[in-house]
């Protein structure tokens, strides 16, 4: 019987807040087995709790969800919209303390939850506290400017001045006064003019006509209209799956790319890249023998540092017809901004038996996951 252990390989938090501050936010995660395989199209039981004060703080709110992962093991829930366990989501004082989110999951879809982790909620969710601003009492506002705190009303709004007159404070109150100098000001008499106004050209942005979803962009010499660039914030996760099998023999001394386990990625500035791979292998032999497979993550055709390789030895000590084993490892990289090619390769490790690596079957298919995290 295949024993299932549950872990989350990567968690992605995405919070959506609107003008009227709805009492919920989005949460997304990836469910995997202990060997790193995605839990595909599987019912999952989740228990989400909001803690106040620390990772072991007071439970302010708790709810449960039953969701089904998609073809990549990804699931989505709206926190604040689940089945209530305790507390009140709308009563959470987001601005009163630091808050943490605690995640528990039952990979069988039931309620036997296992702790996955607890992490601090950062900037965006606390914007929920802004919803209370519309109900602030005047007496609760601090540092009110003296001109407003005196309660005498806005005298300028009731001041009725004639043409070419301005409001002038005479030392005790505001009165209407005439502009000196005929009501005009020479450009040469203005101090501290911003440099971009000194060049004498017109306001090109005022005459620039852009289309829908376009913004003004300076191309180095002039302002032009351009489409809004896509966001590079947060995380981006992409899975690749094996599309074929590699058979290692004694002659397989050079690394070859495992079919399907290759990606071309674009890395933004100030980003980290994490690569993880796992899959199965089959040692072929009728007697006592062992197979050795040498795996390596390649970046732009090269192995980059320790942790990028794994040697798997599959020993057939009982003389069985076939032996199955698996590989699973990962590494983070600091790559220069731009396009890079990531792939997983394998070669024979000088065993006494041939080895079949990856394929398209459920128990042997290889997987490579690439996560780009904007710093």
Describe what this molecule looks like in 3D:
The chain is mostly beta strands and about 375 residues long. The chain folds into 2 domains: about 5-130, Immunoglobulins (Immunoglobulin-like, Sandwich), CATH 2.60.40; about 235-375, Jelly Rolls (Sandwich), CATH 2.60.120.760. It is built from 4 helices and 23 strands. The chain has helices spanning about 145-150, 155-160, 195-200, 205; strands at about 5-15, 25-35, 45-50, 60-70, 75-80, 85, 100-105, 115-120, 165-170, 175-180, 215-220, 225, 235-240, 245-250, 255-265, 270-285, 290-300, 300-305, 310-315, 320-335, 340-350, 355, 365-375. The strands form 6 sheets. Strands 13, 14, 16, 20, 22 and 23 form a 6-stranded antiparallel sheet that branches. A 5-stranded antiparallel sheet has the order 6-4-3-7-8, with no helix packed on it. A hairpin with a 4-residue loop joins strand 11 (about 215-220) and strand 12 (about 225). The chain starts with 5 loop residues before the first strand and ends with a strand. About 20% of the residues are buried.
Task: Give a quick summary of the entry.
This protein has 375 residues and is mainly β. The protein folds into two domains: 6-130, Immunoglobulins (Immunoglobulin-like, Sandwich), CATH 2.60.40.10; 235-374, Jelly Rolls.
């Amino acid at each position: 019987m295949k024993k299932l252990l549950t872990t989350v390989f990567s968690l992605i938090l995405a919070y959506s807040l609107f003008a009227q501050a709805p009492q919920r936010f989005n949460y997304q995660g990836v469910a995997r087995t202990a060997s790193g395989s995605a839990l595909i199209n599987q019912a999952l039981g989740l228990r989400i709790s909001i803690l106040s004060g620390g990772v072991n703080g007071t439970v302010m709110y708790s709810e449960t969800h039953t969701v089904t992962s998609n073809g990549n093991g990804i699931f989505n829930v709206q926190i604040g919209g689940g089945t209530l366990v305790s507390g009140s989501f709308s009563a959470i004082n987001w601005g009163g303390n630091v808050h943490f989110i605690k995640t528990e999951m039952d990979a069988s879809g039931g309620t036997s939850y296992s702790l996955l982790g607890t992490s601090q909620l950062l900037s965006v969710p606390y914007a929920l506290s802004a919803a209370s601003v519309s109900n602030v009492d005047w007496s609760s506002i601090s540092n009110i400017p003296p001109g407003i705190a005196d309660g005498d009303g806005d005298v300028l709004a009731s001041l009725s001045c004639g043409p070419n007159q301005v409001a002038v404070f005479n030392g005790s109150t505001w009165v209407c006064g005439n502009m000196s100098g005929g009501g005009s000001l020479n450009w040469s008499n203005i101090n501290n003019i911003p440099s971009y106004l000194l060049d004498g050209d017109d306001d090109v942005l005022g005459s620039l006509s852009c289309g829908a979803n376009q913004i003004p962009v300076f191309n180095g010499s002039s302002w032009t209209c351009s489409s809004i660039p896509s966001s590079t914030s947060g995380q981006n996760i992409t899975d690749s799956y094996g599309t074929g099998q590699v058979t290692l023999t004694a002659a397989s001394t050079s690394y070859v790319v495992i079919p399907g386990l290759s990606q071309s990625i674009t890395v933004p500035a100030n980003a980290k890249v994490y690569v993880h791979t796992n899959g199965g292998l089959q040692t072929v032999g009728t007697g006592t023998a062992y197979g050795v497979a040498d795996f390596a993550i390649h970046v732009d055709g090269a192995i980059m540092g320790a942790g990028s390789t794994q040697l798997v030895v599959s020993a057939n000590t009982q003389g069985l017809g076939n032996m199955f084993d698996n590989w699973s490892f990962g590494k983070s990289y600091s790559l220069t901004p731009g396009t890079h090619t990531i792939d997983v390769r394998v070669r024979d490790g000088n065993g006494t038996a041939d080895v079949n690596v990856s394929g398209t079957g459920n128990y042997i298919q290889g997987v490579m996951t690439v996560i780009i995290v904007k710093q």
